[in-house]
Amino acid sequence: MLPVIALVGRPNVGKSTLFNRLTRTRDALVADFPGLTRDRKYGQANYDGYEFIVVDTGGIDGSEEGIETEMAEQSLLAIEEADIVLFLVDARAGMNAADQAIAQHLRKQQKKCFLVANKTDGIDADSSCAEFYQLALGQVYHIAAAHGRGVTQLLDVTLQPV
Ligand code: GDP
Ligand code: MG
Predict the structure, then answer these.
(1) Whether residue 117 has its Cβ less than 6 Å from ligand 1
(2) Residue 157 in this model has a pLDDT that exceeds 60
(3) What is residue 68's predicted lDDT score, i.e. its pLDDT?
(4) What is the similarity comment for this entry (predicted)?
(5) Residue 27 carries which DSSP code?
(6) Does residue 35 have a known ligand-binding role?
(7) Ligand 1 pocket, 58 CB below 6 A?
């Protein structure tokens, strides 16, 4: 079983854009990886000699009737089955209540989790991303998934053996 990296975050933060960049649209054959279900979108990725599975989720907009903290069930399950979670936020839109709900859930998990501020192209990333430190998930990694900026640096950190 390859390591599983889940992309979570509210809609429109750029999860699918990052998924496509990481997998270059190579869909994983779910059947080859027992334990993964078809509810979420899986892709196989390869970076610097590491192979891993990436999971795209539909997103969490804060309006779902909740198992917990108004998070969508498929996102909760994606977090559960993941070895590593990339929690995406939108550096242009700024922090909102849905981000805070997701962060609250992730802080309770014993899961390797990285806070990733996307869409940092063409803005002052340091000042735009400063507020995300309030989510108390440690370092905020800056990327622009649409252009690939920061993605290899993120993977270098993410895929480091624990
Ligand atoms: P998802 O709902 O989280 O899967 O988000 P999508 O991947 O569908 O992206 C939502 C929107 O954000 C799309 O219009 C993307 O083109 C845009 N987007 C994604 N990544 C970036 C980025 O790095 N920079 C900018 N400026 N826009 C982006
Ligand atoms: Mg999407």
Answers:
(1) no
(2) yes
(3) 42
(4) Belongs to the TRAFAC class TrmE-Era-EngA-EngB-Septin-like GTPase superfamily. EngA (Der) GTPase family.
(5) B
(6) no
(7) no
Per-residue model confidence as pLDDT tens digits over 101-137: 899 999 999 999 999 999 999 999 999 999 999 999 9
Cα distances (angstroms) measured from residue 51 to each of 54, 128, 143? 10, 32, 21
| ipTM, two decimals | 0.99
Q: Which residue, by CA, sits nearest to atom 2 of ligand 1?
A: 12
Domains of the chain (ranges; CATH) run 4-158 (3.40.50.300)
If you search the block for the tokens 């839109």, which residue do you land on? 93
* 58 vs 78: CA distance, rounded Å: 10
Give the tokens for residue 134.
């309030």
Residue having the nearest C-alpha atom to atom 6 of ligand 1: 14
Could you give the CA distance from residue 79 to residue 65 in angstroms, rounded to a whole number?
18
Q: Does the C-beta of 22 come closer than 6 Å to ligand 1?
A: no
